[in-house]
Amino acid sequence: MKKSARPILFVLILVGGFYWYTTHGATQPSRWLSRPDRLELTEAAAPAPFDSEEQANIEVYKRAIPSVVNITSTSLAFDFFYGAVPQEGQGSGFIIDAAGDILTNYHVIENARQVEVTLHDRKKYKATIIGTDPSHDLAVIRVTARGLQPATLGDSKGLQVGQKVYAIGNPFGLGGTLTHGIISSIRPVRGRESFIDEAIQTDAAINPGNSGGPLLNSRGDVIGINTMILSSVGQSSGVGFAIPINAAKAVLNDLVTVGRVKRPSLGVRTVPIGPELAQELGLPVDYGVMIVQILPGSAADKAGLRGGSERRYLGNVPIMVGGDVIVAIDRQDVVDQTDLSHIMNNHRAGDAVTVTVYRGKTKMDVKVTLAEAPGQT
């Protein structure tokens, strides 16, 4: 062979070898690599036992989950091109009695034309709206079904920051989800159209779809109703709020029996008393609320409470002074108007209360039967 042909032959051999390797060798590694007879894995000898915290979580979930339901509400929304179109919303709720009554948030079923409930066993039922309380974001709906397991309602009085809590609901439509955390704070919170006097703030993850579901203590008792989150993106940021269950228990009978809450009213207009105003007016106390006006025919009017009789100015604002100063109701101190509102929220129309007032320098108790607030009937 001529020397001039040898480089060409060498190049052809290299090209042929590369072609064979890329089309046969590289795509079929089994020709180069041996396979074992079987895969060897390192496995635990036995399932690991749950630690005490895991076991507690499991027990809370097992106890509560049969009572938790998914709620789908259908309403009509207006579309510019198509007119009225159905729109679905998702939320949660929990069974409160064997008759099929379910407690949830008002905003879950607001404006709903149809409400459907899915129980833990996946069975679906049409639900009827029984009662609503928009000002406290509460509602009761009812299904007709057998074998229902009501939740155990606890006591939200005396809750402590740092106490462990659990939230169960259907975030983003994912049914039966459990999250846990602690109580971060107890504070008043104002929602879009509601006000929660002593809202339970928690870092337990609460997301859209959790609304209306139960907030539980470590025994699995319901201590709150998950209602809203504080977030700029509409998802959990570790700041969620629940309505205390005692606030709901106080109105449940009204919601079930009359379909609304018979909110009480004293029928007074008041101004808060502080040290400066007390000194200026020569009052015997530097706290409480002073009645500036009694509404004619109101509970306070019928009980003989007195409003202001002398015109004075607070800055540029004219007020009537000289009225009774309310300092307590049923032995609960009334320091300002927030206390007065809180006490009223724990009563219903028709309740008899003892109002402690200062009339001039004289301290006295006045029996008052609370009337229903105007606009509630």
Layout: helices, strands, pairs:
Layout: H1 6-25, H2 52-64, E1 68-79, E2 83-95, E3 101-104, H3 106-109, E4 114-118, E5 124-133, E6 138-142, E7 164-169, E8 177-190, E9 195-202, E10 214-216, E11 222-229, E12 240-244, H4 245-257, E13 264-265, E14 268-272, H5 275-281, E15 289-294, H6 299-303, E16 310-314, E17 317-321, E18 325-329, E19 332-333, H7 337-345, E20 352-359, E21 362-369, E22 371-372
Antiparallel strand pairs: 1-2, 1-4, 2-3, 3-6, 4-5, 5-6, 7-8, 7-10, 8-9, 9-12, 10-11, 11-12, 13-22, 14-15, 15-18, 16-17, 18-19, 18-20, 20-21
Can you put this structure into words, describing what you see?
The protein has helices at 6-25, 52-64, 106-109, 245-257, 275-281, 299-303, 337-345; strands at residues 68-79, 83-95, 101-104, 114-118, 124-133, 138-142, 164-169, 177-190, 195-202, 214-216, 222-229, 240-244, 264-265, 268-272, 289-294, 310-314, 317-321, 325-329, 332-333, 352-359, 362-369, 371-372. It has 377 residues and is α+β, with helices and mostly antiparallel strands. The chain folds into three domains: 62-142, Beta Barrel (Thrombin, subunit H); 164-251, Trypsin-like serine proteases (Thrombin, subunit H, Beta Barrel), CATH 2.40.10; 264-372, Pdz3 Domain (Roll), CATH 2.30.42. It has a six-stranded antiparallel beta barrel. A six-stranded antiparallel β-barrel has the order 7-8-9-12-11-10. Strands 14, 15, 18, 19, 20 and 21 form a six-stranded antiparallel beta sheet that branches. The longest helix is centred in the first third of the chain and has 20 residues, at 6-25. The model has no long low-confidence stretch (mean pLDDT 85).
